[in-house]
Amino acid sequence: MRLIKLVLIGPPGSGKGTQAVRISERYSVPTISTGDILRAAVKARTPLGLAAQATMEAGGLVSDAMMIDLVRDRLAETDAAKGFILDGFPRTAAQADALEAMSTGQRPLALVLNVPEGELVRRLVSRRVCTGCKRLTTGGTSFGSEAELCSYCHAPLMMRADDNEHTIKNRLATYRQTADPLIQHYRSRGVLVSINGYQDTDEVTAEVFRVLDAVADGV
Ligand code: AMP
Known about the structure:
Blueprint: E1 4-9, H1 16-27, E2 31-33, H2 34-43, H3 47-58, H4 64-75, E3 83-87, H5 93-102, E4 109-114, H6 117-125, E5 128-130, E6 136-137, E7 157-158, H7 165-188, E8 192-196, H8 201-216
Parallel strand pairs: 1-3, 1-4, 2-3, 4-8
Antiparallel strand pairs: 5-6, 5-7
Helix pairs in contact: 1-8, 2-3, 4-5, 6-7
């Protein structure tokens, strides 16, 4: 039996967050979403949040030093000893090198979710996040209307501050510029698996589970 240590790579809107929730439930490992941690820090106006806010709103990347410290602290928590799913980290080769240095033992597996860019824009502009259970949905149209409630927990849905067209363009450009070295990092270590993210969400999950079941069984 091997641990589930997973790095999810994919552009914004590729479904990393949705798949992370499902993987986390099935294999009982925590999801560490650096975007979620940063958004909580912005909301709470902590020093980290105040330092990261402008970069996030512009669709750029927060500094490697800040992100590496954040993830090092989070991985030191006891729940991460039995494995983890990293959603949104690493995003640069420097972050990937730092992760390798800080996570001893079994190497993380990297899953890349591939989705065409036109589809990503479509998903992101219509994406809503539940203020209660934090699930993501797409297909929202009437942001701000009282009709938009979560179909799971019925809490109001809201739009992420960086899911606007201008920031989306920058986030996708940032991904294009940074993804290749990151993918190369994991490919060269023989731990990269590509997943077709442009299919029904449940089919993506089935594909991911097939890969992870084999990992958990030590295949
Ligand atoms: P996400 O929710 O993963 O799309 O992240 C939202 C924003 O947080 C990104 O557009 C970046 O500004 C910032 N961010 C999240 N994770 C990282 C990271 N690993 N490195 C740098 N910036 C990050």
